Amino acid sequence: MAALEDAAPVHVAIVRAAVFDRLTPEQAQAFGEACEIILAGLTGPERPALPADLPWRR
What we know:
The chain contains 2 helices and no strands. It has helices spanning about 1-20, 25-45. The longest helix is centred in the middle third of the chain and has 19 residues, at about 25-45. The two termini are about 25 Å apart.
């Protein structure tokens, strides 16, 4: 956990510089909306079976 806490500020700065600082506000809004749709598909009732769900993985 300490390693994650130590790495977090640098990770956030890199992601911000490489991704979010390059987007216009409109692009960031569209990206957020797309992420919400993807998340709903991964966590909602209609999500596809994931490898961890398969019987032989338990």
